[in-house]
């Protein structure tokens, strides 16, 4: 039986993450809370828009309405990495060798570990950024498709086209596929070797949360009354294959998903605050948290796969010990 250690905060939780084994909760007001021998907090921004771990998992990267990109150390210190003036930094990703990608308006930026900043202009606004799992390459989600850049080298970017507004972006862990969320209720993907399209549609709501399974064979997503889990084990990904549906409930939507770090099961958060865990192989479910005050907006497993940090739009956050 799981146990829940609650942390009741005021405000919308944008990100719940484990950093160096410590649970962090980043709220839209710009304050980051952490449970490190007690409840501690620090103001990282005047209005937070994005927070994600650095690739080494030792710092929390943050971006805000104040035009700053920062790193929050395990000791709770805020270190400014970049500032672009009073512009909203709306997308953020950690990459290899300490690189950080972020976006504001029509421009994507890459900050290298030595402090160098390179910018990439686009015709329309940049909605999402992601690093490829191998090499120094970023993907940018934009209107009518995605663009791939090699920040450390000069050259022509790769343009991947599909009509519509693309709002988020992720590479498969093996680097073979690129997937975007769309303004419409769908995902779109490309097989990078040959540019083949993958259309993943039929969602009743927008996909706002996704997570790759440990070996990259599955992509779990929100946006439906169940977690929709697409198969990516074959050479053509989910093309021609039906997804697995986990944790189906008739009266509420899945709002957040997080795959276990080593095993193929998924933590699933719902619009009423409930959290389940479900195994992909046989769809077996375990209740982790009963309904709460607000929709679950953030979920993250710790490195050992024993605890889940969660946050909601109403600020009821906490840690679930799955083993009890």
UniProtKB/TrEMBL annotation:
<dbReference type="InterPro" id="IPR011047">
    <property type="entry name" value="Quinoprotein_ADH-like_sf"/>
</dbReference>
<keyword id="KW-0966">Cell projection</keyword>
<keyword id="KW-0677">Repeat</keyword>
<keyword id="KW-0853">WD repeat</keyword>
<protein>
    <submittedName>
        <fullName>WD40 repeat domain-containing protein</fullName>
    </submittedName>
</protein>
<keyword id="KW-0969">Cilium</keyword>
<dbReference type="InterPro" id="IPR015943">
    <property type="entry name" value="WD40/YVTN_repeat-like_dom_sf"/>
</dbReference>
